[in-house]
Each structure stands twice: as C-alpha cells, then as structure tokens.
Amino acid sequence: MVRLVGYDTEKEKIGICYDGKLLWRELSDLQHWDRWLHSHLKKLGRNFERIPTKRLKKLVQNSWSMDEVTEGKRPEMTKSIAVCNKWLSSLIELLPGEEAQSFLNDEIYMNKKEATVARLKAQKAAKDYGQFFSSTSSIEKVCECLQKLYSAQEIESSVFLEPSCGDGRFFQHIQSIRGQKIIAMEIDASVAGLARKSAVGLSNLSVEITIADFLSSSRQIDTESNLIVVGNPPFSNSHNPHDDIAYQFIQHCAVEWCANTIAFILPDRCLKPDYTAKVLADLNLHGHEWKLAESVHEPQSSFDFLGTKKIQKPSVIQIYHRFQ
Ligand SMILES: C[S@@+](CC[C@H](N)C(=O)[O-])C[C@H]1O[C@@H](n2cnc3c(N)ncnc32)[C@H](O)[C@@H]1O
C-alpha cells in the first residue's frame, strides 16, 4: 500500500508512506518514473495513465501533513490527494522490480541520486573546460598541412607544443609524421591522466605532460628550437562568454612561447576575414611577420564529448606561421 502523506516546502520533498515506511521524494522523481514507465510500456504496446501534473503541483505549493487533512483542515486538497494516490499506486504496481527498488529503497535511491549529481557535475566541468576532443580526420588534416610547410628533417628537429592536450589523441599522429618531442599541457588533472595513458608505448616520441593553465605558462625550451604548436584550444570560456579564449591561446603561443607555427583546429567563426586580420595585426605587433599559411574549412567536422557523444560543429584548420 502506497500513499502521499505530506509535503515539506523546506525540504522540497513529498512524503510517501510505503509499507508503513516514510519516504521523502522529489516531484522530479515522480515525473522521471512517470516518463520512464510511459515509454517502457509504450514499447510493449501498453498504455499508462500519465501523472496528474496539475493536481500534484497544487499539492507542492505549501507544506501540509495527512493529520491536517484527516482533521478536515485542508478540504480543498482531498480530491487531489485521492487522484494522485490512484496514479502512485498504479505506478508502483507497474514499475518492474529493479526500477521499483530505485524508487522505494532509500539506500538505492540515495546512491543513485549521488551518482547522478556526480555525473552532472563532471558533465558541467567538461563543458566549462571545453572538452570537445578532435576527430582523427581533423588531426590528420592538421598533420598534412604541417607536412606541406615543413620537410621531414625540419619536423624531426622541431619541438611540438600542445597547450590544451585533452586526452592526448594528437600524440600518435605527431609520432607518425616523425615528430620527436612534444610538450603538452592540460588544466584538468583527470583528463591529463588519460593523456598520460595515450603516451604509453610511443617509443619514438618524447612526451612531457604538465597539469597547468596554459595561459599562465611561459616558454620552457631553449630559444633556438623551432616550436610548432598543435591542437584544438577550448573554443569559449564559460566563466566569461565574452572572452575569446581561442584568440588568447593564439596570442599566448606567439608572445610568451615565441612559437614559429600555430596549427589549430578552431571554431569556424575564425574564418571571417575581419577575425584573421585582427589576429595577424596583433601577432605582428611583436616584431615578427606572421602569415596565415593555411585555412581549411571543415563544415562537417565533429568532436567527441565525454567519450560517448559526437557533437557536430563546423570548424576551420588554420596554420599561422612566422616568416622571420
Ligand atoms: C577542445 S579540448 C581539445 C583537446 C585536444 N587538444 C584535442 O584536440 O582533442 C580542450 C582541452 O583544453 C583543456 N583546457 C581548457 N582550458 C585550459 C587552459 N587554460 N589550459 C590548459 N588546458 C585547458 C580542457 O580541459 C580540454 O581538455
């Protein structure tokens, strides 16, 4: 036997009595299981009478208890409680065992809630940091562009820098065009851990990974080496959406790291002539002559998010190169 026994506005939870036990659940839990059961039964060709949303919403406007209702202090609620109890009973009756336990067993319910909160937090952090990883085809195009610009010997004697290396998926491609050394940075320690795994077994490429904010870093190699920057910088800064973090990465590579070449996968807004003109004008303020050596539009490109989702986003591969 299951029935509603109250609502607490402070907890924002509905009291439910099930088999003599008091459970506190959120309105969103009831809505979740309503949706879940509806689509589960639909696949089996069966119907399920949907949640009485309007009545349930009336029951969560103020705190109340069943004692008040039985004492006749809340006559306006009696009908809504009866309708919601009918729906709740059929929900519990029709939910399969494991799903019913997720709703009714406090320990399982709490564990699942915590897991969901942790997953959403990780998802938000991944989004805030712009963890959209490049596709193999885009990385291969970056490498092809570099091979047009440099001979094999020049690539071998250069140092590579990947300022926001993500899970390290560029490394093996740099090894395959005969790069010998790459310095990589990543702000998120857990993602840097994935990059470390990607570096294992790359016997011809020396990989140094640092957990750091690239925008606060400075050049860590001798002044003689030719420095080629590769990667896919975060496209925007969620903390300040007006900040163009991709632009800041380009400037930091040129000014602080004295890069010779910056080969980036960028959002396709960077294709606009005004944008590239501004980037070049600012790069050229520091006594060197920079040119845009390549600009390859990738209207169909996609990025991997959290290892599970493919996000379609047009991009452009741009190679800024210093000629002096
Ligand atoms: C768009 S992903 C690209 C990853 C990888 N370069 C690729 O092409 O797949 C950007 C990465 O930069 C990291 N990141 C964001 N801000 C950063 C910063 N200020 N310094 C270093 N890494 C940063 C994010 O955590 C994310 O892993």
UniProtKB/TrEMBL annotation:
One family name in Pfam for this protein: N6_Mtase
Keywords: Restriction system
Gene3D superfamilies listed in its UniProt record: Vaccinia Virus protein VP39 (3.40.50.150)
Domain DNA methylase adenine-specific, first and last residues per copy: 122-244
One BP annotation, GO: DNA restriction-modification system
Annotated GO MF terms: DNA binding; N-methyltransferase activity
Name of the protein this chain belongs to: DNA methylase adenine-specific domain-containing protein
